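REVIEWER CHECKLIST
Item 1: Sequence provided? yes
Item 2: Single chain? yes
Item 3: Sequence as submitted:
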Amino acid sequence: MIEKNYQPADIETRMSVVWEDSLAFKAGRPDRRDAVPFTIVIPPPNVTGSLHMGHALNNTLQDILCRFERMRGRDVLWQPGTDHAGIATQMVVERQLLERQQPGRREMGREKFLERVWQWKAESGDTIINQLKRLGASCDWSRERFTMDEGLSKAVVKVFVELHREGLIYKDKRLVNWDTKLLTAISDLEVQQTEVKGHLWYLRYPIEGKNFSPEDPSSFIVVATTRPETMLGDTGVAVHPEDERYQKLIGKNVILPLVGRKIAIVADEYSDPDKGSGAVKVTPAHDFNDFEVGNRHGLRRISVLDREGCLDLLDNEDYLRDLPEGATQFAEEFHKVDRFAARKRIVERLESFGFVERIEPHTHMVPHGDRSNSVIEPYLTDQWYVDAKTLARPAIAAVRSGETTFVPKNWEKTYFDWMENIQPWCISRQLWWGHQIPAWYGPDGKVFVAETEEEAVSHALGYYVEQEVITPEQGREMALDRNKREGFITRDEDVLDTWFSSALWPFSTLGWPDDTPEVQRYYPTNALVTGFDIIFFWVARMMMMGLHFMKEVPFSTIYIHALVRDEKGAKMSKSKGNVIDPLNLIDEYGADALRFTLAAMAAQGRDIKLATSRVEGYRNFATKLWNACRFAEMNHCAVPEGFEPANAKETLNRWIAHETAHTTREVTEAIEAYRFNDAAGSIYRFVWNVYCDWYVELAKPVLLGPDSPAKDETRAMVAWARDEILKLLHPFMPFITEELWEVTAKREGLLALAPWPLKQVEPTPEQLAMLAATTGPTDALVSPAWVLPIFDHADFTDPAAEAEIGWVIDLVTQIRSVRAEMNIPPATLTALVLAGASAETRERVPRWTDVIKRMARLSDIAFADRAPDGAVQLLVRGEVAALPLKGVIDVAAERTRLDKEIGKADADIKRAESKLANEKFVANAAEEVVEEEREKREAALARKAKLLEALERLKQAS
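Item 4: Structure as written out by the authors:
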């Protein structure tokens, strides 16, 4: 028996247990042994994470696909797991130690600290997994993986060693994003660009061989900088090769102020003649663009900052080389001074010597660490790199050839732009938590990369015996006795970038590098659902690693979803205070309501503006479904054994079968095309409008009338259509549909494993050939007897039933619309005249007179050759229906009201268009504010169009 009230929390808790106990989501179920696999890997959330709205959207869309394909008979593996999140996890544990006043990481030592991290992971690492389960994610939780599992670690080491052996991993000194607080390199994704109000300093650099004078422009060249403290590391000044002002200076030198070092003036297109003075200082060790300019012109790289962001000048051979006499005093004065304090003092010194031409206020973007919030430094340091350019070539070709496609397709351009301009990938991090780099250093710094320490020792001893650094006897002794080789080779302390291990996720989670049955069956995966912000960081790298090690693309489709913003279109952030917690919404409205909201708003290429009112609205939708199912139960609606909807005799019942089939096709095709919003919109309209508002209402007289064959058929059809609704809605709202499936009829099987409504048919030989080409050879599957479900999209149709019931619905709907437009009170009944009605319509009317009169608030229905004077005319499926309203409404008053409303709409349109025509407003206002004005304009235009339509109708009644 269905409970009177819909209570999401009770249902969700109970259904989660039912699914888990029945192993409903387990891949490789015996009943799916011969089925074609469908695989999705979850973008592994950080083990430190908590469910946010991006997770909710991403996992809802994945779950829709997985539940859909599971119902279509596929052997679905939705591979779950979490990422070890190097920096984030290390910070959490270090913060915990600090709060508990316990020894810090350095005092504790690496081994003890890592034990503590594993302890934290065991206690708190399942938080986000449990939250995903609350959302209804139908992952195969028995296969949950972690990027530092023993098996995944084995894969990471193997990949590193093989890529190093192939020359695709190497060590190099390059610029990295350096966090001076965390003391590690970080990825671009962990850098946030923050707008800062600062200054632009215009500095005079004396030209070599000229007597410098601030009053003599020919004695210096002016450069502009936002970072005077890095000028100590300048090794050049760049001017545009076509800038006439500097043609005679190219190839000459300037004298670096305060330092006295000679630096060259070079011609480079990086310099913009229209910006500042047209000349820029080049500091290759402290700016990414300058690094490239320096490479092009062979300029020295002089790093003047240390790991903590302080000036590092004494004992700095690069800085001290070629300095004139007396310059070391300056180095002593500023050594170990913080970069920002140094900036102030250096500017003061430059001003005292006349080297500052002017200072201007300047707002610019400054990189900050997303976790430390410290200003990020481009820092020159030795790191491990992957030759990403070489690995990118096959990954680019795979997308160009269509082996892997992006949805929406426009993201391919972003992918190509990034991949074709790819830089070496810095994979080392100065952390303790993570996969420690499998590299060991000999006494002379020689590096030995190996999968195990024993292997590295063997390589090292062999090498040093050959080089005669040690004798063969010493080599044998050291090989046998660990104590004798203690300290002979030392392991690299750095760990690998988290993205390195997650790049292997589609195959490492399946047991690779071992040749497991799971690798054979579930790789490559089918679809990847992810956000646009990690196309480069994760998607591209999975493509590179998958193609290199598996020789196949890791997924055939990449669906890129948009951002979830607040209801005004602003990006959610803690600082703005506009973050919406999905768990709070689940607590208040239920997971189904949140899921359906996200799916219904997930239009391709469009950000989601999430308002709590939308979630509340879809909670009401769930309640509507609940009440409809309860009504069916109270009226003893059930599907008798052997019931076939196509054999129904009643027009109304044939119509709902027709509409159900139509909706089933729409929902199926929309999910197949990743048009989640269209699929959700289609099932929403069918449930609310077609089934509840029309079918159930039109069926009530029969259901509440005396027993008859028509009543029996209608009871069966109400129940059958309800069951089809539960199937179609299940991928979107799994909890409520599973509950209703269980309680509306004591079924043995779960809805999660029930067949999808579209009828399955055997594939033709042509279809089999096509499927073999796209899915892979049949011998790669568990059984060669596989059959991919092919669905008959030409299911039941009844145009005659649709024409009749559709006419009734359209007629009532249009009459209701006019009554609302004209402010006709519900108690006022109006007449209806069908003008020049066809024989078909004349035949229908007697069958539906009582229904039409009741639902459209009519006093009478009559026929006439033409519409009476003063009647509002409606065109309903090509025929005229007239409402004589003379005497029913005050036409003059109504016209005045409509004119007034049109005036208001015009004012709103003008106000919005005035703002949008203001280039300054569009350029300076926040993106969400501009978008809000566009929406106001569109809403006002739509309102005006409806008002004009009503006014036109009113003229007919005059």
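Item 5: Key structural point noted by reviewer: The two ends are 56 Å apart (CA to CA).
Item 6: Recommendation: ____
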